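Reading a protein record of the kind used here takes only a little practice. The record below shows the convention in full.

——
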Amino acid sequence: MVHGKARLCTEILSAGTQCTQFALRGQPWCRSHAASSQRERNADARQLIAMIRQMNVVTVACVLQNTVYELRTKVIPPLHAQAIFDAAASRLEHLIEEHAQLTSATAAHRGDKSHQNNGLQVVPIK
């Protein structure tokens, strides 16, 4: 008796990883991804996540607000929301690093005396 090799679903999830469920007989997808609407939702989430990598802080904030709303109203599944949140967090970390580098470069250019003009003093904690 010859048994066929089990195939996994070919759908790429919103997080960019391949689905780990078994594909239905004669189809490339599992039960969850057999519906074209589900695959379209995955594609939409992947596209949004790819776009987040180029967004500024205001646009990322808008995406987060929309994602929270869509999650609360059950428009998107929690795993899609989590993938979007992860991408947004990564982008925000990158933007913070860019801002810190720009701020330190500006401070170095000014001779690092910019804090003297605002009346604040740096006092070490004992």
Notes: The two ends are 78 Å apart (CA to CA). The CA atoms of residues 53 and 94 lie 9 Å apart. The chain has a mean pLDDT of 84. DSSP finds three helices and no strands in the chain.
